[in-house]
Specification:
Elements lengths: L1 H17 L4 E7 L1 H4 L28 H12 L5 E7 L5 H6 L1 H4 L7 E5 L2 H10 L5 H18 L4 E5 L7 H4 L4 H22 L2 E3 L1 H8 L20 H20 L4
Amino acid sequence: MKNLRRLLLAGLSMLAVSAGGAYNYLFIGDSITDGNWGSPKGWPCPSEKRNTADQNHIYGHGYAEMTIGVLASENPDTAVRYFNRGISGNTLSQMADRWDKDALALDPDLVSILIGINDVHKALKNGTEIDYSAWESKLDSLITITQERKPDVRIMLGTPFTARVGKVGVSSDYGRGLEMTRKLADIVRKVGARHGAAIVSYDELIGKLTADTTHVPASYWLWDGIHPTTQCHALMSRLWLEKYAEQVKEPQL
């Protein structure tokens, strides 16, 4: 933990200085990132209708808030700003539709994305297949325009995940949903490698946690097959911080 703390401090200081004393972190995605940030009213609730004055709920409740808590506490610098712009229920296309106002408008220096499980849910519900080529192209374009706007932006890409537990686990189409989720995770890795992004392999983490060989039931980590419990969010945050620290140790050229 000491080495991780040292790297986090070094990275935050370096990035803040390179940005002229102001640095913006953005977490964006669907409900797993959302965590009810800004006390949303109605569903889905757009960012502009959320309460950004209530500091008790401004980052939501989950891995994003936990990660921000570590980063902000280890580097108490008011010039470093953090934003949660996850919106529950979002597919990749829906997130893309709000990219200008919820991502680019915030002038992010670091963008963390976790998206995909709702694309799977939508396809299963409609009895259709995901257009994987189009999905890859859309994710690629979001990162491309972000990097064109700010060449030094750091990208963190989380892989979507699921597990055979809860209502998702007992569904007759679970196997098909798992296959779709794995394909999207592979696309995330492919796009990330293309853009020099850090890959946060949540799917591998969840796979290990929910394996049949463990002594803890899968529901301890994912209560419905999609949404993490508090303890799982904590491990997701730890994994995110480890991948971030690796980027600091080996900065992108």
